[in-house]
Structures are given as C-alpha cells and as structure tokens.
Amino acid sequence: MTFLLAGGGGLLSFNTGFAIWILVSLIAFLFVMIKYAVPPIMTALQERERNIKESLESAEQAIAKAEKISKDNEKALRDAEIKAQQIRKEAVEEAELIRSERISKAKEEAAQLIEQARASIEQEKDQALVELREEVAKLAVKSASIIIDAELDNAKNNKLVDNFLSDLNKN
Question: What InterPro entries does the record point to (predicted)?
C-alpha cells in the first residue's frame, strides 16, 4: 500500500494541474455537445417518437378497420347461412310438393287404368255371356232337333226348350 501512496504517480496520487485540464476539457466537450450534437440528436429522437406515434395510430386504425371488416364478414356469413337454410327449406318444400303431385298423378293414372281394366273385363264378360248364350241356344236347338226327331211331339219339345232357355236366362 505504501507503494500506491508514494509520490511517484500512484493510483491515488492527485495532480491539480491535470485535474484542471480534465475539467476544462470536460466543460469544452459538454459545450460542444450541447451546442452541436444534442440538438440534432434531440430532433432525431423527436422525429423517431413522432414516427412511432404515427405508426401506433396507424396500427390502431388498421386494427379497428380489421375488426370492423371481421364483424362485417361474420354478419355476412350469418346472413349467408340463414339464406342457405331458407333455400334448403324451400327446396325441401318444393321437392315434397313435387313428390305429392307425382303420387297423386300416379294414383289418378292407376285409378284410370283400373277403371279401364274393369270396363274391358265387363265388356269381355258381356261378350262371353252373349257367345255362351248363342252356344247354349245352338246346343238347345240341336238337342231339340234330336229330341224332335226321336219323339216327334212338338208341343212337348217346345216346352222343354222354353224351360231350358228360361232357366239359362235366370242364371
């Protein structure tokens, strides 16, 4: 420690002339800094601060715009979903209407076909009955002629044929 306190320029030795020069240099440096360096630095800092504020304001405006657009998009999406549901509902209703119309039309056509088939069957039945009666009449006449030839009693034979024919008409 004695080495440090010795007058040979140790660390803790103080030189007044040197200190004054350091003080004058420091004051000159501060004067030059305050006069020439600080104003441009302050201007640059203020410009930077202004740019940051403008950027923040722009960002806030952009966020507000984005939120508005997002809300508009959500509303448009909800509206589109509602419209799509309406379209689906209308399509289902229309399909049901078409289906019921086709079913009723098919029923009408089936009823017409059944009625035509009944009429046709009735016509064929009547024709078959006419043909059957004609055939029976022919058979009756043939039977009568055979009986007449065998018995030669006209009154009896006519009575038999008339009874036979009347029985046929009843059935």
Answer: ATP_synth_B-like_membr_sf (IPR028987), ATP_synth_b/b'su_bac/chlpt (IPR002146), ATP_synth_F0_bsu_bac (IPR005864), ATP_synthase_B_chain (IPR050059)
Does residue 39 lie in a domain region? no
What's residue 1's pLDDT?
41
Please give the full DSSP string across 55-118, using - where no structure is assigned. HHHHHHHHHHHHHHHHHHHHHHHHHHHHHHHHHHHHHHHHHHHHHHHHHHHHHHHHHHHHHHHH
Q: Which tens digit of pLDDT belongs to each residue from 53-80?
A: 999 999 999 999 999 999 999 999 999 9
Distance of CA 57 to the CA centre of its chain: 42
Residue 88's domain comprises 49-170
Q: Check pLDDT > 70 for residue 132.
A: yes
**Is the distance from CB of 25 to CB of 32 less than 8 angstroms?**
no
As a whole number, mean pLDDT of residues 93-113 equals 94
Computed on alpha carbons and rounded to an integer, the radius of gyration of the chain in Å comes to 64
Helices 154-170 & 38-151, crossing angle to 10 degrees? 170
Is residue 164, in this structure, part of any structural domain at all? yes
Does residue 158 belong to any structural domain of this protein?
yes
Any domain includes 36: no
Three-state DSSP at 127 gives helix
